[in-house]
Amino acid sequence: MKYIITTAAFIGIALLILLAKAISNSDLISSDAFRILLGLNIFFICSLIILIAVQIFRLLQSIKKEITGSRLTLRLVLSFALMGIIPVLIVYLVSVNFLTKSIESWFDVKVESALEGGLTLGQKTIDILMSDIELKGKSIAYSIGNADTEQRYNILTDLRAKFGIQDAVIFDQDSKIIEVSSEKNNLIPSIPNIEDLERGGENFFGRIEEIKTGEIYLKAFIPIISNTLISKRLILQLTQPIPPSIANLALSVESVYEEYQQLTYSRNSLKIIYILTLTLVLLLALLSSVAASFVISRRFSSPLAMLADATRQISKGNYKKIISEQGKDEIGMLISSFNSMTSQLEVATKNSEKDRERLEIARTFLETILAHLTTGVIVIDDNRLIRLNNVSASKMLQNNESKMNDKPMRKIISKNSLFEPLNEYIETYIDDNKKNKKEISQEFRLKKDKKEKTIMLQITPLRDKKSTQYVLVIDDISEVTQAQRHSAWGEIARRLAHEIKNPLTPIQLSAERIQHKFSDKLSKADSIILERSTNIIVNQVNSLKIMVNEFAEYARPPKIQKDTIRIDTLVDEVIELYKIDKIIIIKKDKNIPIIYADQNKLRQVIINLIENSQDALKEIKNPKIKIFIRKKTNEVELIIEDNGVGIPDEIIGRIYEPYVTSKKTGTGLGLAIVHKIIEEHDGKIKIERINTSGTRVIIKLKSGKTNRNG
Amino acid sequence: MHFFKKISIIIIVVSLVIIDRLPDSEDNEILIKDVVIDNSKDIKIIEFNQEINFDSLILKAIKKGIPLVFKVTLKVVEVNDIWPTKTIIKKIGYYQIEYKALRKVYRIEDINGNKYEYKYIDEAIQKILKVEDFKFLFIDNHMNNELWLNVALDRKKLPKPLQVNYFDRTWYMNSKKSIHKL
Predict the structure, then answer these.
(1) A122–chain B Cβ distance below 8 A for any pair
(2) From residue A673, how far is each of A189, A446, A663, A676 by CA, in Å?
(3) How many interchain CB pairs under 8 A, A with B?
(4) Are both A487 and A472 inside the same structural domain?
């Protein structure tokens, strides 16, 4: 489009020059070429108007679509157009006024009067000459009329010569030449027309003829009234040239007068054509400048529009937007600086992006760690609102809410009343240590109803300039403390076994020896007492031996010999021993997978559990022991449940600890040993009460030919 | 640009029509009548009368010394139903009226160049309205020939300011084409 406008502007200038040339050339102005030129100008002006209208339409569309730079272009176009229109309009109005007044001044009244005076003077001069020739002609006619026919020529010639007449011819009524007298000897007179002769035959008749250019002749017709009886009337024709000096002047005045009159008559046309030409020039100049203003405005606004567009792109994050160079002026420098800034921004953004990625990786890493931590982590702010927590914290606090963020810590912890002491401790810590923040950790033994937990709470303040946040690390150390207790019990058992087992055999042997040596020597009554006493010693020693052996078993170091076994076959073998009771019901899935375990140890587990169930069923009517062997994903599940008296609530939390038993005769080591064996096989054991009465033991062991963990 | 392309042809056509119609609209009509053709010899002689509306402006112009030159265009054409009309003869003649201020006469120059002078404008006009003795050589070819006659004011002979005043329709005097069988 800019090429079209530029071309149009050049054509406009060319047409202007042609129009100016044409208007100054009077030959060209009346030719068809001028008409074509005018037509071309009008056509071009129409084209320019349409071109500008299209440009304005497009510009308004751009503004409507909020295309960058369009408003600035409009402003520049208006400014440029006004800069062109105002001075050109002023020049135009002044020119039109000047032109109109100038043309009017050409036709001054004085000039017209002078010309008319000149013309009248010429006319009067000719009239005087005509009067003179009339007098001379009448005199000649009178003389000829009174003369004889033979004397006519001489009289005519004499008087013509005397009066200084150039030609004198006598015609009759039929235009026949009667006599001719001339300064030129060889004159062949022209025959006048009949009308002139008829008028001249009646009275004097004179006329002025312009025979050649610049030569004016006076022609007079005078009737000859004869005294003789001549039938035909004669007419004298005199021809006399007006002196050239007078004639030239008179013709010159006439010519100027005519031209002046023509101009006077044409002055409106003159005004119209000059004003038309001026208007065309004005329109061409104006429209060309307005059309050019679009190109210039776009030239100015386009780099700024590009800058604005690029700024928008950068605001959207596209730092690769580079603007093409636009010369070495201020705008070019601005664009160059902008490109430089964009490049720096891109580098900075890339670095920032890398940092952000690193942060993201670190955050993800931290989140992964937090998510996989069995320890609960909660971050709270000064207002006790939770800012961050991991899944373990949520699980540990037994909170079902998926998101704890931005919720008050107290509200979340209070949902489980078991953890209420933690709330109070944290509140107190924050209130007491607002200024001097120190890391602190505290163990809590939480017990409510039948639940018991050991919790380790660690509070670490994170301080920055504006606020302080607190990291709460909540660790459920119930199992750790239990394991510690198991370990302690193991040590005790080992020492007990070592210290007690050694003297038992000599005690038993000594008691038997006493009975054997002194039973015969004592009286019957004393012998009976001795026998009873020694039997008690032996029995108690045996009981101690059993107890010590069990302690030894509990305290033994983990030494198991694993092999691939079938748990269902093992269960079948063990049940075979208890078949007499007919209270055992076994249900097992098909294709139970093999496991990798110590067969003897597992046998001991099954025996211990069945015997426990038997003990619980002693006073129960319709006793039942149900054994289920189920196939699970990568696991084998063994469930042994009974409908016995069940485990009391008081001890169910510590059921795996030695010496914790509800039986009157038990050592309290059976379940502790079972728990230990299952742990040694990386299995899981869970003991639970069945609704009203009865106990269910669930054991889960990993299936497969090898134990992945050992 | 697309819009400009679409309307460019319309603009050109409209502009050409305007330019073409400028001199032709609402002309003062010259009526050719009483056409007499002497067809007896090879040199044909035409006579005809005219009706020209000399309004006050034109009369004033004549009195101001503006010469009015009328152009008589005579064409002998061969008319064919199939082919385009063929011009056999074309002859142009002029007659004019002019006021000579010095001698206070209206000078008439007829189509054959004869000059006449009249003291009164009515006489002069009467003289120019009748065109006589307009001769042309034409040997009859016994084809379907027609004589086309047209009279118009010759604008090129007007003073230049009047020539370029395209908007003044006074000076556009033209007759319709007068067609006669030969």
Answers:
(1) yes
(2) 176, 27, 16, 5
(3) 95
(4) no
Which residues of chain A neighbour B3 with C-beta distances below 8 Å? 54, 57
Q: Which residues of B touch A261 (CB under 8 A)?
A: 64-66, 101
Sheet holding A695-702, edge to edge: A584-588, A625-632, A635-642, A695-702, A684-689
Q: Tell me the nearest-neighbour CA distance from A147 into chain B, angstroms.
A: 35
DSSP code of A231?
S
Instruction: Indicate whether A573 and A696 sit together in one domain.
Output: yes
Q: What are A577's two structure tokens?
A: 């021993």
Tens-digit pLDDT profile for residues A279-299: 888 888 888 888 888 888 887
Q: Which residue has the tokens 């053709």?
A: B37
The DSSP code for A148 is -
Q: Please indicate if any CB of chain B lies within 8 Å of the CB of A243.
A: no
One domain for residues A575 and A696: yes
Domain boundary among A242, A270, A295: A242
Q: Are strands B130-137 and A684-689 parallel, antiparallel or unpaired?
A: unpaired
Q: Binning pLDDT at 50, 70 and 90, where does residue B115 land?
A: confident
Q: What is the pLDDT of residue A28?
A: 66
Residue A256 within a domain = no
pLDDT bracket for residue A135 (50, 70, 90): very high
Question: What's the confidence (pLDDT) of residue A709?
Answer: 45
- A138-186 pLDDT, tens digit per residue, is 999 999 888 888 888 888 899 988 988 989 999 888 888 888 888 877 6
Identify all chain B residues contacting A252, using CB atoms and an 8 Å cutoff: none
Q: Helix axis angle, A32-64 relative to A70-106, nearest 10°? A: 150
Instruction: Evaluate whether ipTM surpasses 0.85.
Output: no
Q: Alpha-carbon torsion A243, A246, A250, A256, what sign?
A: positive
Q: Specify whether A159 is located in the same domain as A197.
A: yes
- Residue A397 in domain: yes
Q: Which residue of B has its CA nearest to A218?
A: B103
> CB-based contact (8 Å) between A429 and chain B?
no
Q: Note whether A262 contacts B159, CB cutoff 8 Å.
A: yes
Flag whether A6 is in a domain: yes
For residue B6, list chain A residues with Cβ-Cβ distance below 8 A.
none
Residue A228 pLDDT: 65
Same domain, A154 and A203: yes
Q: Between chains, do A39 and B15 touch, taking CB under 8 Å as contact?
A: yes
Q: pLDDT value at position A356?
A: 92
Percent pLDDT > 90 in chain A is: 9
| Record: contact B101-A273, CB cut-off 8 A | no
Range of the domain at A267: 2-106+261-311
Query: B121-148, pLDDT tens digit by residue?
Result: 999 999 999 999 898 888 877 778 889 9
User: Does A126 reside within a domain?
Assistant: no
Same-domain check for residues A567 and A544:
no
CA distance A637 to A220: 163
Distance between first and last Cα of chain A? 84
pLDDT at A708 over 50: no
Q: Number of folded domains in chain A?
A: 5
- Tell whether A204 is within 8 A of chain B (Cβ): no
Q: Domain spans of chain B?
A: 27-181
Residue A30 has its nearest CB partner, among B61, B64, B164, at: B164
pLDDT single digits (tens) A346-402:
888 889 889 999 999 998 888 888 888 888 888 888 888 888 888 888 887 766 656
| Residues A215, A140 share a domain | yes
Signed CA dihedral, A271, A274, A276, A281: sign only: negative
Helix or strand (DSSP H, E) at A565: strand A563-565
A272, B102: Cβ pair inside 8 Å?
no
Partner-chain contact A270 B18, CB within 8 Å: no
Which CATH number fits the domain that encloses residue A598?
A: 3.30.565.10
Residue B77's Cα: distance from chain center in Å?
18
pLDDT, tens digit, for every residue of B31-68? 999 999 888 888 889 999 999 888 888 888 888 888 99
User: In terms of DSSP H, where are the helices of A519-566?
Assistant: 524-555
